[in-house]
Design brief:
The chain is built from 17 helices and 39 strands. It is an alpha+beta fold. The strands form nine sheets. The chain has an eight-stranded antiparallel beta sheet with strand order 14-13-10-11-12-15-22-20. An eight-stranded antiparallel beta barrel has the order 24-25-26-27-28-29-30-31, surrounded by four helices. A five-stranded parallel beta sheet has the order 3-2-1-4-5, sandwiched between helices. Strand 29 and strand 30 form a beta hairpin. Helix 7 crosses helix 8 and helix 12 runs antiparallel to helix 13. The chain is globular, with a radius of gyration of 27 Å.
Length: 670
């Protein structure tokens, strides 16, 4: 088989650009990267054969400018463009412009993009193709009052959606008239900002829903087939967080029925390339069409791992006119794959975006897992990379594949523990906590999973008494080893019975626990003076931040870092701050006064770095609890800030249009 193309330009950035580059390299195709000023030193630029600057950091002035992409193709001689996802991937005008310039678009034809990219048109086409659809209002909605009337007619709760785009943007759930009115305004504003299209529609919101999607693949020779389903129900603000293939909810009969409908819809719009038909499924396995994404999906790796089919490579080959060389009956789902999206966000502060430099970035390694486990990491960053406020906050996608779901989930839990990121906040503790939930392990999923599991927000995984005791022992042993190194020098042996035993006090939440540590041949025996607590083996250098410990013959991976005089230990989504002292130091610590945090309740603080879009109040205004105060935009999402209690505005500290730092004061109350 010859090369489908000699040179391809990748009109994207980050992990998906790096992912496409890998398939191009395997097909022996030269690559061209494009980059904004913010991405001049990005990984996808380094990996490509050529790179072309296309403008300033703002995507509206770079990655979304069609003329600049075409100019880059002409400048480098690229024959085709792969758009990845987001940006121009579902832009019909982009496809038309490429066609006019004689450049191949690696994706579906413009007619399919136009039909399926618009949620209203796509639902009408799905209905004509006898695909099950969700009840709703198919027409365009002009204003908030009309949205309220339509919502009441459909029956609350309803979903308010932007007609264009995806990724959770321009979507709101409304359960009453007030939420419908406010949700319409917010969804329309987000849609205008993200997609340049403010059209909105409304449909019935299905309770206890599962989000299940079917991957389709079609060539230009009339061959259309599906590659099974993906379960994407673990979502936050309608954005997927964890995906897996296959779904624990489907049986063979339901899978075949959903696959047949997805194929029928693809045929109805003369689809070719890779695409995804998304369904919502209730607890009785009734399923309804949501939308069709006419591009590669973020979560495509789980399908690739269970089918062995390279979707990106096939998109390229199909665009070059090749026919699929396998049939529907040849598609087999082998084992189970789970994907976790690693985001730059703080799960302990309502998942607010985090920006900055990756001071430390260490991915888990495949060699640390059993041979039956396949580990895959799709990322577009390296240590030292900058996470910018201008783009999506995804850092990487972590994927595990094993023979069955329990094994794939267990491998994911281990992989998350081994992922070390410093310099920014990230959601790994949250992902690890979800994996540890019994409901998740039992496969009892819905798109409400996160809201129902963490109704008051995520505060970290609770530790059992035994696990907390083990982590306290790990902290004491690590501190003991560090003290030994400091006493004997850098070349001191890690273990050995040299008489350096130690009595230590580990203090957590002002509660001291005493330990005596004795060293043996390759281990530390940690006890409380009478009974052994843990026999601990740590073979890493003393400066290691990621400890692989054998704790009473159970392997645990623990991250350990300094926070002032204390150690912070993280494991399995749980975090523990421990101060380790000699016994006399423990006695003195017990009588130290506790420093009270400053009172910031009189201020409205920005919960994230971002742009202050608007203020809804002025100096001297009376405000009520729950009242809308301000809107802050970060990483392409609008966030409404509300009043926590009744009061009066004393002063305005930031004006609309201001760039805000995290915890910067916006308003001050009397």
């Amino acid at each position: 088989m010859g090369k489908p193309f000699k040179k391809i330009l990748i009109a994207n950035r980050g992990e998906i650009a790096c992912r496409i580059l890998r398939s191009c390299r395997e097909l022996d195709i030269a690559t061209v990267a494009v980059y904004s000023d913010a991405d001049a030193d990005a990984e996808h630029v380094r990996l490509a054969d050529e790179a072309v600057r296309i403008g300033p950091a703002a995507s509206a002035e770079s990655y979304l400018v069609i003329d600049k992409i075409i100019e880059a193709c002409q400048q480098t001689g690229a024959e085709a463009v792969h758009p990845g996802f987001g940006f121009l991937s579902e832009n019909a005008a982009f496809v038309e412009a490429l066609d006019a310039a004689g450049i191949v678009f690696i994706g579906p034809p413009v007619g399919a993009i136009g039909a399926m990219g618009d949620k209203i048109t796509s639902k009408k086409l799905a209905d004509d193709a006898k695909v099950s659809t969700v009840p709703g209002h198919m027409g365009l909605i002009e204003d908030a009052e009309e949205a309220v009337r339509i919502s009441a007619d459909i029956g609350y709760p309803v979903m308010i959606k932007a007609s264009a785009g995806g990724g959770g943007k321009g979507m709101r759930i409304a359960r009453d008239d007030a939420e419908a009115r406010e949700g319409f305004a917010s969804a329309r504003n987000e849609a205008r900002t993200s997609f340049g299209d403010e059209r909105i529609f409304i449909e019935k919101y299905i309770e206890e829903p599962r989000h299940i999607e079917i991957q389709v693949l079609a060539d230009k020779h009339g061959n259309v087939l599906h590659l099974g389903e993906r379960e994407c129900s673990i979502q936050r603000r309608h954005q997927k967080v964890i995906e897996e293939a296959p779904s624990p909810a489907l049986d063979a009969e339901t899978r075949a029925a959903m696959g047949a409908q997805a194929v029928a819809l693809a045929r109805a719009v003369d689809y070719c390339s890779a695409g995804t038909v998304e369904f919502i499924c209730d607890k009785n396995k009734n399923f309804y069409f949501l939308e069709m994404n006419t591009r590669i999906q973020v979560e495509h790796p789980v399908t690739e791992l269970v089918t062995g089919i390279d979707l990106v490579a096939w998109m390229i080959r199909i665009a070059a006119g090749e026919a699929l060389d396998f049939r529907q009956e040849d598609v087999r789902l082998n084992g189970w794959a789970v994907e976790s999206r690693i985001y730059a966000e703080d799960p302990f502060r309502n998942f607010m975006p985090s920006i900055g430099r990756l001071v430390t970035y260490r991915e888990p390694r495949g060699r640390d897992f059993e041979e039956s486990v396949q580990l895959r990491i799709d990322s577009g960053v390296t240590e030292g990379s900058e996470i910018s406020m201008h783009y999506d906050p995804m850092i990487a996608k972590l994927v595990t594949h094993a023979g069955d779901r329990p094994a794939a989930v267990a491998a994911m839990r281990q992989a998350l523990d081994r992922f070390l990121i410093r310099g920014i906040k990230h959601n790994i503790p949250f992902l690890a906590a979800v994996m540890a939930e019994k409901r998740f392990q039992d496969g009892e999923l819905s798109t409400n999973f996160i809201a129902e599991t963490y109704p008051d927000g995520f505060e970290g995984r609770a530790l059992s008494d035994d696990l907390q005791r083990e982590l306290l022992a790990v902290a004491a042993a690590y501190n003991h080893r560090l003290a030994k190194r400091n006493r004997l020098g850098m070349h001191a042996p890690r273990h050995g019975n040299d008489g350096f035993a130690g009595d230590w006090v580990a203090i957590c939440n002002r509660t001291p626990v005493s330990f005596t540590i004795r060293e043996g041949d390759g281990y530390y025996l940690v006890d409380d003076g009478e009974n052994p607590v843990v026999e601990l083996t740590m073979d890493q250098p003393v400066a290691a931040r990621r400890l692989v410990c054998s704790v009473n013959d159970v392997t645990r991976v623990v991250l350990i870092e300094r926070r002032g005089p204390a150690w912070v230990l993280s494991h399995g989504g749980a975090s523990l701050e421990v101060l380790v002292l000699r016994p006399r130091g423990g006695e003195l610590a017990a009588i130290m006064p506790e420093k009270a945090p400053p009172d910031l309740s009189r201020f409205l603080l920005s919960p994230m770095p971002g742009l202050l879009v608007s203020l809804a109040v002025g100096e001297g205004d009376e405000v009520k609890a729950g009242q809308h105060l301000a809107v802050v935009e970060a990483m392409k999402m609008e966030n409404i800030l509300r009043c926590e209690k009744d009061g009066k505005v004393l002063a305005i500290h930031a004006e609309p249009g201001s760039s805000l730092a995290v915890d910067q004061a916006i308003l001050e109350f009397e």
